[in-house]
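Technical note accompanying the year-one report. For the benefit of new consortium partners, we illustrate the data format agreed upon in the data management plan: each record pairs a sequence with a structure-token string. No post-processing was applied to the example shown here.
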Amino acid sequence: PRSDNQQIRARIRQSEMYLRERSSIAESNWNLSESSGQTGMYAVVGKILSVLEDLDRYVFDKMDPNTNCLDVLAAKIWGPCQPGNGVSSQDEAVVSILCEWAVTNNRSGEHRGFVAAKLLEHRQAELLSTDDDEGKEEEEYYISSTPVFQEVLFKFLDTEAPTLT
């Protein structure tokens, strides 16, 4: 054994403590606690990944009203809705990933644009519904104001949408 082993071990312990401290700070900024009312980046990334997985697993060629319809897919993708609360950060992330999924050349199918539009329409109807509207079908909604996701959609068009070259 070397004579300075104790000093080396003390430095290693100090470095480990410093790394643990930095890791906990980084993790707390990455995943903000939901008790503070904010949704962390970790939750948004997880939501995006689960949306892509749900879209990729969905079989668009068959329609089964119990297990394989757009209402079931919408419930999986959007999750529960609190009408009147507006668009959440997770909703914005889902809208962006739906738009990207609809126009990407990395996946096949002409149906993707229609599916994305129908899912956006479904969520908008949920967000605009009130307790009085429980019995109404979503087709009865005629929006006279600005669409709920217009700002997010324009942002996608301005920054991420494919362009003709």
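Partners are asked to follow this layout when depositing records. Helices lie at 5-30, 41-57, 70-78, 89-103, 112-128, 150-159.
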